[in-house]
Amino acid sequence: LITTRMSLTFHSTDFEVHRNWLAITHSLPVSRWYHENTSEWTLDYPPLFAWFEFGLSHVAQHFDRNMLLVENLNYDSPATVLFQRLSVIFTDLVFIFAVRECCRCVQEQKGSRDILNRPSFVLAVLLLWNFGLLIVDHIHFQYNGFLFGFLLLSVAKHLQSRHLQGALLFALLLNLKHIYLYVAPAYGIYLLRSYCFTQDNKDGSISWRSFSPLRLIALGSIVGSVCALSFGPFIAMGQLPQVLSRLFPFKRGLCHAYWAPNIWALYNILDKVLVTLGVRLKLLQEAELPRASMTGGLVQEFQHSVLPSITPSITLVCTLLSILPAAASIWWRPGGARGFLRCLLLCALGSFMFGWHVHEKAILIAILPLSILAVESREDAGIFLVLTTTGHYSLFPLIFTPAELPIKAVLMLMFVIYSFTALRKLHSGPVSLLHPLESVYLLGLVVVATACEIVFPLSPWQQKLPFLPLLVTSVYCSVGVTYSFLRLYVSLNTDCVNVEFTSRHV
Amino acid sequence: MQTWSLVSLCVLLGVVVRWGVSLNSYSGAGRPPMFGDYEAQRHWQEVTYNLPVQEWYLNTTDNNLNYWGLDYPPLTAYHSLICAYIAKIINPEWVELHKSRGYESPAHKLFMRATVLVADLLIYIPAVVLYCLYLTDGSAKKKVSTLFCFLLYPGLILIDYGHFQYNGVSLGFALWGVLALGLGWDSLGSMAFCLALNYKQMELYHALPFFCYLLGKCVKLGLMGRGFFLLVRIASTVLVTFALCWLPFLSDPSRALQVVRRIFPVARGLFEDKVANTWCSLNILIKIRSILSSDSQIYLSTACTLLAVLPSSVRLLTKPTFWQFKLALANSSLAFFLFSYQVHEKSILLAALPVCLLLNDLPLVAIYFLQVSTFSMVPLLLKDGLLVPYVVTSLAFLFFGVFLLSALEHCSEEELRLGAYHKLLFCLPKLDMACIVRWKFYISVAVMAGLSFASVALVPPPHLPDLFPVLVSTTAFLHFFGTFLYFNVVQFSGPPSRKSQKKKN
Question: Which PANTHER family match (chain A) (predicted)?
Fold first, then answer.
């Protein structure tokens, strides 16, 4: 209900993207879907999503036929806007259902509490009112609620030990948006280890004899059939290479137009600093430096000047290295479904940190599952608070018109107040949830926010360095995100140690 | 959870809803030559900034009173002046004399909407928060729920942030007055109410209860002793406040008279457009406007209004308690709305404020009435293109009101204070009044939804072009009249029994 209020007139380029896809899937035959490039926003999601858009387009024609013509670039009649917004709201029903399932899996604590203090209620509010999701889906326009519904539902199924359903849902999800490949290793290793090997030895290590090929085959057939269903028509038409090239456009730059707060942002800044220092100290010749600037707001290739340049393969290697310890830990010492969740988080965060052309919206893949852990354990709650606040703040540059400034500021404030007070109440104890340094860091966010949103536009630097606020935002947030990543890794190790001492049952 | 965090969450949510509505269209958008209320406010900024005080209400070459001349008391003019100063700093084109007529731009819209929000944040919202926290009884959760529903009242949000007006300021001042009286600070309360009165003359709807309550209090304290001092103190506060507001106009009595003539235009007819009051509804059956002369229309409406407001005022005079005061506010504003002269549909907001005060005590009736009041403004909202905000805010209000205040559970006969009805309707067989009320509520909501949908989707038959506005206003009128009778009955029945109230919480 509340989300319908977000029917604002502003829409970003993503709106046009989806309108274009509606038009493509509706008007053109299937064979042309991945070859069409009248508009610059080509179809770059897997086929299942294309089928989803195709289904939507049949409803769309009742609203406004004109939006389904491919030539109508940037078409945005009120009916079109209304339809698109309603479709997001409608598909959010999947998300709401998934949240309910998750809440049922959360362990309730003893003692009578009124509804406001129950972990499941807190979790429900944290998920449903997640600021990032609200902003990205309803203002910026995407279908993330729908997709996250699938992710959370599959996680919930695993928490309830219904592994086959969970696997099916994840396969569907992968075919809807391939960004979730980031977390596929977690699924793969967890299912292989905990599902295919039906029993563990007494000390928790693998019992090779309990390998069940039947289960493996079941899993494989589920995944295979889903992929076949979505990719099948394209393989039959021999278009697989074209589809893959559309899905994985490696020509884009290392960083997205708005720098995602990951390692590469820090790397870029380091490079810039070294360059400036070098020029000042006369160690480098300014004329020798490559002209390409990475501080433009567009997606370009660029070279680093001082430090070695980063290629896609390097990012791949770094990502794999970062998620390897997590994957190894659930292989050697499985922590049950919650260990799987932790590993999923680490995979998501690892690929966010080291990936190629990461969009800052991807931080949501890490934040939403972390909510589940946050309502159950103290330490996770602390990490959650740091990660969500910085992650959500890094989404601020996505919404840049002055008209929406109050909305995003107020919504962010609401989410921050709620998450802090609710989690504090839930995990009340002698020690506060946040280390003093962390609190200082988060307060520093307020300073940065004021500077970027209010002070900067009115200052004379607006013309000379228009990219400065974005830079400052990403760099400041990357510190927070990196910190959370490291803490999560630490907690993984300690968690596994604890699990070893306690139960052995998966 | 701690109260402060819940309160701040409610306030923030209220702000989000208001700003969300304000991103929609406003009255008279893109419609030359006259545009609408938005252009009127902008024009007042232009006039007050560029012309000297003496000329604001006069018809001069620079100030054409036919084009949105100032017709509110001086405090509105001062507020426009302050806004104009800020506008001049940001973009002088917005308030240039003559040249800025009909100026419309996204930046300007942002500025105007921001002025409404700032005024609300400074005046209306703090009053609401303080009222709900200090003058309502119940657990903290109940208070916060009341606060939430109060802030979510759709009518005020849609008119102030959609249609564009500054009702929040005048209603806010009136609310401060009520708050002060409730806490026992009589002079401050009267000063706040005078400010409200000097902002919008329609606050006169609330004037009689304030007067009767304070007078009754003085009488109770003894007219020869402390009561007399209280009376003198209040009277002097009122006079000083009025003098301060009207200072620039007091030097020349003719000028003051001109202002009065502008703010009380008696040259217009009994009603304009379709309003949910008696005269308009009566006009469907008997063409009053054509039968009676304009003078007799004035006399008739004055007489009816006075008659309608008399019982509740007398009751308040004899029993000046805060509970009676709230009910009298509701009764008086409703009486004025129903029977007065030249009433606008937006005036229902003046009746809605006292009913909001009763959200805690009579949740079902309050929510019912507030929803009907929003519904009665549907033709106006549709003209401004505010359909989506209307639907969304009304649904949210109904949902949260019924759910958070448990309105449908707390409607036993005793809670609705329907005991008196039994005495009145003693001839009829024993009816379960509570059940009737609940069913009336469901049916009304269905009817309202149906009529709203019809006004949007269906085309009226050609020989009855005003069919839907008329239907809307008549339905609303019936509800308002019924509520008016109900509140009168409640005011005359016994005070709320404290014991049964404590049990529920």
Answer: DOLICHYL GLYCOSYLTRANSFERASE (PTHR12413), DOLICHYL PYROPHOSPHATE GLC1MAN9GLCNAC2 ALPHA-1,3-GLUCOSYLTRANSFERASE-RELATED (PTHR12413:SF2)
